[in-house]
Amino acid sequence: MNKTIQIDSQKKTLKAQIMRALKRLVLFGWEEALSCLFPVVIFVSLAFTQIVTLPFLPRYDWLLIIFLLMQWWMVRSGLETRDELKVITLFHLIGLSLEIFKVHMGSWSYPEEGYFKLFGVPLYSGFMYASVASYLCQAWRRLKVELVKWPPFWVVFMLAAAIYLNFFTHHYWIDVRWWLSGLIIIIFWKSWITYEVDGTRFRMPLALSFVLIGFFIWIAENFATFFGAWEYPNQTDAWSLVHLGKVSSWVLLVIVSFLIVAMLKQVKVKLH
């Protein structure tokens, strides 16, 4: 009898643990979904404008209008704070600068017409970088992210600057992305991020989070090029899968984005 009671008790405990785990998984997914709201709107807009031809303006200009309205609504509704808007605007400028250079170098192109283009780059393109910052800012706030064993500020600043500059300089000099990747592993070897779900804190190696986000952005990039957000040289005649090697570029971009957001948040804490 006692053994039967013990087995029933163990089953109830296991069931309760499974239910708690499922609840946390659902809550985590919900917070992640809310954090991804801006990227989702971008992909839906790309798909919709590819299928439906909107009147009066070229497609690229309609995308700019949609993204501007979305940004305004997110701040107006309180989904994003004004401080987060400042960070996102910074990323918009950083991304647009990179896009202008890459298009000039022939890395990819924006073949469609548009009134709001700067040196061949539609202004909406900056929002694709800004959406990464939007996700990071919102996930940081919603999941109460904290950094453990974070390197000194000057080290992080120099690393972020080196990664960003390499996107430009590798066209004229050697590509040092793999050296930078090794340096990232060394610098952040002991660094973790902790986040909260349903009152319980979890942790993850920082380097792993970079790789995961970069990989999912690569998946998103394939959808974006399929819906004509931009075009690589090998996609001119027909769409094809983006080369897997681009994952490394996205991981580095995620690292730059994460480091900038982390630095700005640390500066804000010190000022307050």
Would you write up a description of this structure?
The protein has helices at residues 2-35, 37-51, 59-77, 82-104, 125-142, 153-169, 177-187, 206-226, 246-271, and strands at 117-118, 121-122, 146-148, 192-197, 200-205. It is globular. β1 and β2 (121-122) form a beta hairpin. The strands form two sheets. A three-stranded antiparallel sheet has the order 3-4-5. The protein has a two-stranded antiparallel sheet with strand order 1-2. It is mainly alpha-helical and 272 residues long. The mean pLDDT is 78. It has one domain (36-271).
Structural class given helices, strands, pairing? mainly alpha
How much beta, percentage-wise? Answer: 5-15%
What is the typical, i.e. mean, pLDDT? 78
Tertiary shape: globular
The N- to C-terminal Cα distance equals 62 Å
Number of strands: 5
The number of helical segments is: 9
Strand order of the largest sheet: 3-4-5
Q: How many domains in all? A: 1
Low-pLDDT stretches are none
Radius of gyration: 21 Å
Order of helices and strands: HHHHEEHEHHEEHH
Q: Could you describe the largest sheet, including whether it forms a barrel?
A: 3 strands, antiparallel
Helix percentage range? 55-70%
Features:
68% helix, 9 helices, two-stranded antiparallel sheet, mainly alpha
Write the layout of secondary structure elements.
Elements: H1 2-35, H2 37-51, H3 59-77, H4 82-104, E1 117-118, E2 121-122, H5 125-142, E3 146-148, H6 153-169, H7 177-187, E4 192-197, E5 200-205, H8 206-226, H9 246-271
Antiparallel strand pairs: 1-2, 3-4, 4-5
Helix pairs in contact: 1-5, 2-3, 2-5, 4-5, 5-9, 6-7, 6-9, 8-9
